[in-house]
Amino acid sequence: MVHIKKILSVFIIALTVPVLASAADYSESLQYLLPPAEYFGQVVLDNYSHKAGVSPVTFDHWLHRAKFTCRLCHIDIGFAMKEEMTEISAADNVNGYYCGSCHDGKRVFDGREIFDSCAEDYTENEGKRCARCHSDAESGARKYKYKTFSEKLTKLPGNLIDWEKAESEGKIKVTDFLEGVSYKREPLKAQDDFSIKTKTWTADVIFSHRKHTVWNGCELCHPLIFPSTKKGTTQYSMKQIMKGEYCGACHMSVAFSVWLCDKCHITPVKQ
Amino acid sequence: MKNIARLFFIGFLLFNFWGRGFIVGGSLNTVYAQEQGDWKQEYAEICAKTQNAMELSVAELKDRIERADKLQERINKLEGPLAETEKKVFTKRLKMCRELYSFALEYKEHKE
Fold it and tell me: Is A221 a member of any domain?
């Protein structure tokens, strides 16, 4: 019986892989592996919302990362890298921290005043403002829709935005310094790029320190995600990455998906 | 002459028991006020070199780690209406910066 199951699963994989690989549009195959692009990188925050009688906050990474670097929010403002680990309260926002660092009703960005986040007291009419964050994408309370927001941006398979291209083409301009929140730092000195050898048939990975540090700085990855100080001693698998460890900390949820193999495995395939 | 001497004496006593106390007390208040406010400046100075942490010497890294530990003690003692939020935010920010220096230090010590 066990043998039959094994044979059957091998048979299914043998049938599935060529179907996926030979698909005319790889984007189509990815729809089975990835969530819809508008939900990719979506974070739901509900440490206190339900208890306070409001809907949880649904945070869209795609909307914010078009304007700010990862470093600005995750280091200077202090948002944790894992969902609900920050434990943001309304009081924190009212005090001008976390979401309230920008969403204070005074700060102007791109010529527009950024709407205020939480308030100690609010009227029913102001409830519409609450719903801009305390709601989900289907509620109709959101100002920005992924489809319209991303229509002029180059896409990767899976309808995901190609952020690297968007930046190099000048379609987005990200801010890395927030007055009153960020502190002056010395100019960035990125370490050299290096290759990561694979133990399978796949090509080696070329890791670009430069590309990563421009958006993340150093302390977002070291030592939190990559703790080893001895080059080449940490060994990790795609299984771990897909569980959200190592590269998967960002590339399973926010940055381009790990299913886009050739974005990282870019040296010639081993013979 | 005696009156002048008395005035000087009284003035001397007043300065010692009240005036000096006022001056010292005043400067203590200033120190306290600085203690309350300058911790953010200290944070800014400690964490200003995270972008080039690998360029720092072992001594510089050790110094920054030590300063970060001392600052954390001050952050733990913060008081006031913003204290709870500031403790949460700056404890995390300082931790990330301290750990990066610690990472760079470990790397350099392995290399030596």
Answer: yes
What domain range includes position A201? 186-271
Q: Is residue A224 part of a domain?
A: yes
Closest partner residue to B51 among A78, A87, A217, by Cβ?
A217
For residues A194 and A88, the answer to whether their CB atoms sit within 8 Å is no
> What single-letter DSSP state applies at residue A103?
-
Which residues of A are less than 8 Å from B99 in CB distance? Answer: 219, 222-224
The CATH number of the domain holding residue A269 is: 3.90.10.10
List the one residue out of B32, B8, B28, B9 whose CA is nearest residue B20. B28
Would the CB atoms of A185 and B85 count as touching at under 8 Å? no
**Other CB atoms within 10 A of residue A201 CB:** 8
pLDDT tier at B13, thresholds 50, 70, 90: low
Residue A27 has pLDDT above 70, yes or no: no
Cβ <8 Å between B51 and A227: no
The A-side interface with B (CB below 8 A) comprises 75-78, 80, 87, 91-92, 95, 97-98, 183-189, 191, 217-220, 222-224, 227, 229-230
User: Prior bond to A36 cis, omega within 30?
Assistant: no
Q: Which of A218, A221, A224, A230 to mutate to test the interface with B (most CBs of B within 10 A)?
A: A218
Task: Give Cα separations from A251 to A39, A81, A146, A247, B89 (angstroms).
Answer: 14, 12, 19, 6, 26
Question: Rounded to 5 degrees, what are φ and ψ at A194?
Answer: -150, 165
Average pLDDT over residues A40-45: 92
Question: Is the confidence at residue B93, as pLDDT, over 70?
Answer: yes
What integer pLDDT is reported at residue A234 of this predicted model? Answer: 82
Judged by CB atoms closer than 8 Å, whether chains meet at A91 and B85 is answered as yes
Residue B29 has pLDDT above 70, yes or no: no
- Nearest CB among A92, A191, A222 relative to B100 is that of A222
- Whether residue A207 lies inside any domain: the answer is yes
Mean pLDDT of chain A: 87
Q: What's the pLDDT band for B75 if we cut at 50, 70, 90? A: very high
What is the reported pTM? 0.81
- Looking at the 3D structure of chain A, how many domains does it have? 2
Three-state SS for A196? strand
Domain ranges for chain B, please list them. 33-111
Domain co-membership, A137 together with A203: no
